[in-house]
Design brief:
By secondary structure, the protein is mostly helical. It contains 17 helices and no strands. It has helices at residues 4-34, 40-58, 61-76, 79-102, 104-113, 119-132, 136-151, 155-179, 183-209, 219-222, 225-259, 261-298, 301-337, 341-348, 351-373, 377-401, 407-425.
Length: 431
Amino acid sequence: MRPLKQNILRLAVPNIIANISVPLLSLADAAVLGHLPSEIHLAAVALGGIVFNFILWGLGFLRMSTTGLTAQEFGRKSDRGMALSFYRPAIIACAFGFIVLLLQDPIGYIGFNFMEAEESLKVLAYDYYKVRIYAVPAALMNFVIAGWLLGMQDSKRAMVLVIVENSVNIGLNIFFVVFMDMKAEGVALGTVIARWIGTLLGLILMFSAYKKRLRWPGRTALLQRTELKKLFSVNLNIFIRTMSLIAVFTWFTYASALKSTATLAVNTLLLQFFMIFSFFMDGFAFAAESLAGRFYGAGQFKALGLTLRTIFKWGIVLSIGFSIAYLLGGDFILSVLTSNEKLIVEAKDYLFFVIAIPIISFAAFLWDGVYTGLTATARMRNIMLISAFAFFFPVYFLLEYFQIEYYLWIAFLSFFIARSVGMTAFRPKIF
């Protein structure tokens, strides 16, 4: 076995690189649409994207559960188990993809009727939605493919999949918008084609490298009741956990907008600090998923404990480094994000919170990876529910009632503190 630190970096670094490619896609979309005569097309993509965020975030359990279950089978060296850990979620992804396409009209009706926007903007956003909806089945399958590759400790192929898919997406968006004059619907079409190319590439990467381990296990094995029940339980727990997380971030944005447009703009800028940090910390969380599941499945509990200690050492170093970088370079980062002096001045009053976020949240990121690798999802679900509904929302409404300054950010930080402390205090007994 390779030295553990090298193994962690081998898994984490490709995930970090893949994560960084994601905002580049958003940046490219903003660039090509931002140069059109009217800003309404950029706004339409942003508005339509909200619906897809809910769909894809909500079904993100397909990636997480696949990683944990596959890593455990990898640790057990069970070829049959590894095959089943792909085929079962792949069938679920296909089913959900079909259901989303079948219910696209009611989903769109509900989603857009909850949004406050001008009717002309909603029309364009709905046109974007009606094209991009056909990317959802491919996106769900890509969750499973990426999750399976991570469970197989193969972060390089997972990285190639994400980077190629996003690069194709950027190229197609530029082609359709700039050269074909298609505007928002061009961005949607580019996404659809790129997602399906990603699915095809992912399957080619998987079956070319793991053909023997991906032999069809047979219908009886696939439909084994006990295993299906376990898969359903794990996925349901992660779904509830994810929806709680969405509730917090959605409320953070909503509450910012309630306060003022300026507050929404400032908090949107400040959240970029959190997102930058999360790209790096998620890379190590994914490594924790892969290795924790692997060692747990193999019964190598000493290696599992050593993995936990090593991954947390990396987490401490990274979080302190980011906090120091934000302390010393926060003004510079703000100037890169915006040229609006008024926003920069207002954002500086909140820099303390973004400086604190890496230190108080890194444990939550890493424990998420460990819990997922061990498929300890019920415990992860419960801690997320408590953090959201016993800390974030009560703290927010209490401090708002007493008109405490910075009440939204204090509530936001309390959410991460509750998660970090809760997941550490109630960690699985194996530790």
